[in-house]
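Help! Submission page says 'invalid entity' but I think these are all valid:
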Amino acid sequence: MNIRRPYIASYSVQLLFAAALSALTLCSMTSCATKGADGRKWVFVPVNSHVEKAAKTNEQPNSGEAVENSSGAVTKSITINSQYDLAPSNDPMAYDPNGPIEVKRLPSVDASSNPEAAPVSPAVGNQVTPDNSSSINVSGYVNGGASFRGQSGNFNPQDFERMIGGQEGQIRDFQVLSDVPLSEAQPLPPQNFAPTPAVPYSSPTIQDFQPEVPYPTPAAAGVSPGIRTPLPFNQPQGGVRSAWTPPGIQPSNGGQWPQDEFIADGGMGPKGVKVHDDFSVSGLEPENTIVHFDTIDGKVGVEASNRVEIYAPKFRAVRQVIYAGINENIQKPIGYDGTQLAINQQRNVSEMQSKQHLAYGENLATKPGEQFIGKVAAGESSNRRQMMIADNSFRAYENLKIIKTGVMDRSEAGVLAESIRRAASWGFTSNPQVAIDYKRVMAVVKDEGPGIVYQLDKDTNNPKVRIVKIASVEDARPGDHIEFTIRFDNIGDEPVGNVTILDSLTGRLEYAEGSAQCSKKGAFMTEPNKAGSLVLRWEIDDPLEPGEGGIIRFECVVR
Amino acid sequence: MGGPVQGYYQPVLVTGPRGVNISMTYQGEFTPLKPMPNIVGLLIGQVYRMRITNFPVLDAQGAELFPTLEIIDRIYAPKGKEVQNPIVVEISLEDIKEALRGNLVTRVIYLEDPNNPIPTVNPPNKYQSTFDIPSDADPVAVADTMGRPVAVLRLGGRMPIRTPEGLLSDEFQFGSPSFIDYNTSVPATRKSTTTIAPAKPGAQKPSAQGKQPALPPTEQPGQPDNAPGANDGFDDIEF
């Protein structure tokens, strides 16, 4: 035993040294990502950066390093250590310092077991070293909003996740403020980092690339996109509007726009909508706007519209009347005629009887919206009549190419965003995804940011109907009229039939009788919903050919 | 959610029956009477004393009431539209009648929960509907169950208490917190709004009893940008 003790001690030292060496080796091989508290990785991929180009042409990027991973796939892993890396000059593919940087998680790929699925693309790009081996300072804005700063010593994954709010998205104005002097480096802006205690960080391994904890998407978090989710702070403005939040809403407070001041309409609930054989619909919640259609092969498709939010706070009052005599007692004056016994004072009756005051009765019967449930049998159509054909003229707020022609114009993205959500910004929760069919090349404008994703759709038999909803005003008061316009288009590659658009109005909106218009021949019906308002239903008679669309317009009164 | 920020003036629309006039308190006196509705910017958490008169009620000629208004939360209107979307405080004719009978009326204004709206349209020429609760209930608690309380109006309180110098006492006017008086009759920009700053301790107050203090017509010259009311965020507002 005595002989083994020095050996054990020596072995321990060797182990420690080996572990440190291994950690350094791993760090150099994978010093490309920050590791989150839950093991997730964050990778920065500058859009159209020279790094990506270098990867394709197998060029050696500036001050970067090429890494050949264990699967043999050549990837470029560059440690961000200077501003020069991100902004090379005279390069048409140069990274735009004001442009977006995608923040992605590394894929759940085990390159050793599946070489074909090696992280080629996601691993290409600029990545932040989380360890303390070099000094890295970064700053930027997440989604055009919350700013963050960090230093390598303090810029640990936990801080990073806290700074960016744990969300994937895009980082704008990302800067690497390196302490490493480089001749080509730009002058560094003044640094004023708040000292924070360093958090120990373990070197990442390939196993760490596995998603240990699913990313908390809104759906995974139990919150459906578009349904009563508080707006995140400072969402991107589609590249058009500047970020603004009212005073008092700060990111440090977990600032969110209050939702009780908005009227929302559109979207679909988390449980979805089911269309039955008799074309009745279940699961349609107030505020939902959907379209359902039949395909050639007999399937039923359901698509939801974007959400429209209008600033329309509604005030009510609770009134209480307290009578002055409630707590009074009648006092006997001193020196009253002594012929009457003082005990008689007790016979005085207090004016407490005035407590019997009856409150104003005219509003006592007012009940919450839920109590209207079941008042009218669901599904009972109150009327069915031919729709009015929409006016040929377009409204001022409809002056958008997507509304007029159904073709999305990128230059109108910001205006469309404002029409969809006039009172706020592009809503992360409103999830207004617009797909465009450019001869099988689809451009998807996502709400996460100004980026545009092109994808080549080679599949056929891809029926799809897009539905876009906009409003005429951005704010309204009780009694005001709001005009809504819904544009529906068959953006698939085959005809669809039995196209039915349903809009279940929120309880704050009252349909203006006779205001419904539709550019397609069909029927219009209304039926009560459980919010005390109506479900508007348009049934289009003729099938929609690919590329064909129409417009629906109606008016509501704000309650 | 965020919350009130120091120095934010929440636009409040005080309205009532046609013909009723209203005034605020400023440095120990009431401001000149103005017809309702009146839009003022009020600090959150402060209590404001007002005077209303000229009631369309028989046998109430010359009568005055001195309600208090407390703003307990703010709303978040789109930028540039704060004044167009104020908190609406309505003093109804019924409220005035109850107060003239000597009763105390408490009206808690709340923002309706859109998840649970009452699907009724407000009657024409009426800003907000009201429901009454018994005297043993807590109106703020009741309003909290219905939505988000934003203001409390109390009508039928005490008569003015004046100091030996003839000024309104601080107790009566709750320290006369500053407010912004939006001139609703003339389209104006920020320069034409009048910021009423609270009286500084020891400052000389207007001494003439019964005289209405003349409000400064425009912004005080030389007023720094960080003065009370200057950072109100309404630079581009037209109303």
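Support: the input was valid. A stray whitespace character was the problem, and the output above is from the cleaned input. Residues 184-194, 197-239 of chain B have pLDDT under 50 and may be disordered.
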